[in-house]
Each structure stands twice: as C-alpha cells, then as structure tokens.
Amino acid sequence: MAQPPRLNLPIEDVKPRLRQQLKQAKEQLARQNYLAEVLRKYEGKVRLSYRDFPLRQIHPQAQKADEAARCAAEQGKFWEYHDLLFANQAKLDVQSLTEHAHSLKLSGPPFEQCLVSGRYTAAVGKDLEEGRQAGVSGTPAFFINGVVLSGAIHLDSFTRVTDEELVRAW
Q1: What DSSP line would sit under the chain, residue for residue?
Q2: How far apart are CA 71 and CA 90, in angstroms?
Q3: pLDDT tens profile 131-140
Q4: Predicted confidence (pLDDT) per residue in 154-165, tens digit
C-alpha cells in the first residue's frame, strides 16, 4: 500500500497549518448549518439558488466534482451528494466521485456515463463565468437580493441581511 505524501516542514510550521485546516473545516460545517437554519427560519419567504464556482487554480478537481453533483441530481440526490463531497474533500478524483455515488445507491452506469461524458462541463463553466461577472472571487458567496455575503459568514449576518431585505420587500 502506498504511503501518503508527507509534509517536509519544520514541526513549528506544521501545527499552525493543521490548526488553520481544522479551523477552516469547522467554519465550513458551521456555514452549512447556518444555511440550513436560515432556510428553516425563513421557510416560504426565501429561496436558495445554488451555483457552481469551481476554484480550479487551487482545487484542480473541483470542476469534475461539480459536474458529478449535477450527475447525482439526475437521480434526485444533488444535496446528498453535495454534502458527501464536502465531507470528503480529499477524495475528489474520478474514482472517488464514482465511489461516492455508489455509497448513495445511485445507479452506477447512468452516473458513470454522465460523469465521463462531460455533459455538464459547459453548464459548470457558465455558472463560473456568471459568478465572476457578478463579482464573486471566492467561495462561499451568497447574494440576498443583491447584497453580497462572502467568506466565513456568521449566522447573525445572514439573519440581519435577510430581515432587512424582507422588510424592504413588503
């Protein structure tokens, strides 16, 4: 069995990097929970429109992962697959994307055909370009009636902006 690559860093450099990675993972989970909480709190008053924004320069496998999520959507499992990808960000190669699909009991041949065909390459690219045109430069980015929330967003920010925009809408 191949050994995982090792960091060739002095020990004093490793701890801060690990600490930062843990912090980022916790923030990401919190954002996902915040988003679910906002959608529950404002049920019937807001809607979520999801767009892909693969940061190819720093996440070379992001494009294919976004395409795979769209393939999962064909079988009604976009969000389940999306959440699985976020929980397994170190496993986004094509083989792992297929294994994730199998773990969700997606029909193998249709998913695999969709993934290798490039069926959603252009659609993901279109989302990316539209995001750039809207001023998005990183993820996550949220628009609430044109108000941009970008980066590590706290629940209070979502709530404040959503409440303000709901008041304006009425």
Answers
A1: -PPPP-----HHHHHHHHHHHHHHHHHHHHHHHHHHHHHHHTTTT----------TTT-TTHHHHHHHHHHHHTTT-HHHHHHHHHHTTT--SHHHHHHHHHHTT--HHHHHHHHHHTTTHHHHHHHHHHHHHTT--SSSEEEETTEEEESS--HHHHHHHHHHHHHHH-
A2: 20
A3: 999 889 888 8
A4: 888 888 988 998
Residue 76 and residue 27 share a domain: no
Distance CA 112, CA 44 (A): 36
Task: Characterize 97-133 residue by residue with b for buried, 16 or more Cβ atoms within 10 angstroms of its Cβ, and e for exposed.
Answer: bbebbeeeebeeeebbebbeeeebeeebeebbeebee
pTM for the full model? 0.75
Residue 83 has pLDDT above 80, yes or no: yes
107: containing domain: 54-134
Count of domains observed in the chain: 2
* Residue 1: other Cβ atoms inside 10 A: 3
Instruction: Please indicate, yes or no, whether residues 157 and 97 belong to a single structural domain of this protein.
Output: no
